[in-house]
TrEMBL record:
Keywords per UniProt: Oxidoreductase
EC numbers for this chain: 1.1.1.79, 1.1.1.81
Keyword RNA-binding among record annotations: no
CDD domains xrefs: GDH (cd05301)
Assigned protein family: Belongs to the D-isomer specific 2-hydroxyacid dehydrogenase family. GhrB subfamily.
InterPro entries: D-isomer_2-hydroxyacid_DH, D-isomer_2_OHA_DH_cat_dom, D-isomer_DH_CS, D-isomer_DH_NAD-bd, NAD(P)-bd_dom_sf
Name by which UniProt lists this protein: Glyoxylate/hydroxypyruvate reductase B
GO cellular component, one term: cytosol
Keyword Lyase: no
Enzyme class, spelled out: oxidoreductase
Domain D-isomer specific 2-hydroxyacid dehydrogenase NAD-binding: 113-288
Chain ranges of the D-isomer specific 2-hydroxyacid dehydrogenase catalytic domain: 8-319
Phylogenetic lineage: Bacteria, Bacillati, Bacillota, Negativicutes, Acidaminococcales
Length: 320
């Protein structure tokens, strides 16, 4: 099918692998420069767009859809789609594509790296050394073993179960909580528990839920209070799943011994944010899927989703 008259727009840079795939199939308008596409330019592009390749950092809602009367598909280069108003898109028959699966290992690696950091002071140790304090390393205190500890995974989906695999290699016991128990949990070496049991019995908690109305703010003051004293906490899902003040207080008081976060509320997290004043919190700037290989795969799936949708074919991954 000749799609050359179809206009595909992108609010940011498209990776070369996806550019190459798209450019002789459709008419492409992307912002390949640094920074954001200028407002006037963006308005013009939306007006004529048949497809939107979203890099994820824009809100896609009725306000945007009204400016894009021809839009047939939004394909986003991420698995999370909490920035997209799915109902508004459905009401206008705008299809939504995302990129589950291809980023699972990269994200689970960062989650596990943060988890080890909460146990073993890797980032703190580096900063200590850099500050010329090698000789005073006892000031760091001792870490704790992962071996024989309980990891509670909240959100045992694709990424949650990939975190479990890594933790099993360290000899951890895995428990998890989802809204729905997974049929194959025994084969994955994980035991289903209630939310309360997970909070009360986990030495480490890793969060890999989707952001939805049931998870927004689920780690609040009561959740941190219910945890074991000295629990360690990792979040790679979305910052809005956690009440930031409650987390700050829990770490400051020692209730939570250490935290590792790839996502925060707000994002970007300002350099002078109170969370960053606590020595036992490590924050990475939402980079869990940021490897060359994974970003290439995400870009290619996004481009393939666009071509499939414009051709009336099923997308590789469609959000409904
Ligand atoms: N930091 C980063 O760069 C990245 C972050 N992410 C985030 O990770 C999320 C998960 O991705 P992925 O594993 O692929 O998604 P999946 O859909 O495979 O897994 C999400 C899991 O969350 C569970 N869940 C949803 N609501 C609740 C709830 N209220 N309580 C407990 N569990 C819940 C779901 O189970 P059930 O429906 O049974 O409750 C499901 O098992 C993404 O949505 C995204 O926000 C993803 C990639 C990169
Ligand atoms: O945060 C990233 C995603 O893929 O979701």
């Amino acid at each position: 099918m000749d799609l050359k008259d179809k206009i595909v727009i992108c609010n940011g840079k498209i990776r070369p692998v996806a550019l190459e795939y798209l450019q002789d199939k459709v008419t492409l308008k992307s912002w390949q420069q640094r920074g954001r596409v200028p407002e006037e330019q963006w308005k013009e592009w939306l007006q004529e767009a048949d497809a939107l390749y979203s890099t994820g950092n824009i809100r896609i809602d009725e306000t945007l859809l009204q400016k894009a009367p021809k839009l047939q598909v939004v394909a986003q280069a991420s698995v999370g789609y909490d920035n997209i108003d799915v109902e508004a898109c459905n009401a206008r028959n705008v299809k939504i594509g995302n990129t589950p699966g291809v980023l699972v290992n990269a994200v689970a690696d960062i989650a596990y790296a943060l988890l080890i950091d909460t146990a073993r002071n890797i980032v703190r140790g580096h900063l200590h050394t850099k500050n010329g304090l090698w000789g005073e390393r006892k000031a760091l205190g001792l870490g704790v073993d992962l071996y024989n500890k309980t990891l509670g995974i909240v959100g045992f989906g694709d990424i949650g179960s990939a975190i479990a695999k890594r933790a099993q290699a360290s000899g951890m016991r895995i428990i998890y909580h989802n809204r729905n128990r997974r049929l194959n949990d025994a084969a994955l070496g994980a035991r289903y528990v209630s939310w309360e049991e997970l909070l009360q019995t986990s030495d480490f908690i890793a969060v890999a839920v989707t952001l939805n109305p049931s998870t927004r703010g689920m780690f609040d003051e009561a959740a941190f209070a219910a945890m074991k004293d000295g629990a360690r906490f990792v979040n790679i899902s979305r910052g809005k799943v956690v009440d930031t003040d409650a987390l700050y207080n829990a770490v400051k008081s020692g209730k939570v011994a250490a935290a590792g976060l790839d996502v925060t509320e707000p994002e970007p997290l300002p350099g002078d944010h109170p969370l960053l004043t606590l020595p036992n919190i490590t924050v990475t700037p939402h980079i869990a899927s940021a490897t060359e290989e994974t970003r290439d795969e995400m870009a290619l799936v996004t481009a393939q989703n666009i071509i499939a949708a414009l051709s009336g074919q099923p997308m590789l991954a469609q959000v409904k």
